[in-house]
Write a structure and sequence with these properties.
The N and C termini lie far apart (about 45 Å). The longest helix has about 40 residues. About 75% of the residues lie in helices and about 0% in strands. The radius of gyration is 21 Å and the shape is rod-shaped. The protein has about 70 residues and is mainly alpha-helical.
Length: about 70
């Protein structure tokens, strides 16, 4: 989007475009990581409601015991 307003032929403007792209990639990665964490927490919550032992949930989802206990 920034490319419309910036001349890509100057070093300064090229640096700005690269900085924007890097920031966008970082935000995308952070959002994805947060989404995956929320999904694991939801699954853990459902498994706890079904009576699945915490140790099994830890193995299946890679969450710590503390993370699972905080979900309750």
């Amino acid at each position: 989007m920034a490319e419309k307003y910036i001349n890509p032929h100057t070093d300064f403007d090229r640096d700005i475009v690269n900085a924007i792209r890097t920031a966008e990639k970082k935000k995308y990665a952070e959002g994805r990581t947060e989404g995956e964490k929320k999904a694991k927490e939801k699954i853990a919550s459902n498994l706890l409601a079904l009576g699945v032992p915490i140790e099994t949930i830890m193995q299946a989802l890679g969450l710590s015991e503390e993370e699972i206990k905080n979900i309750k």
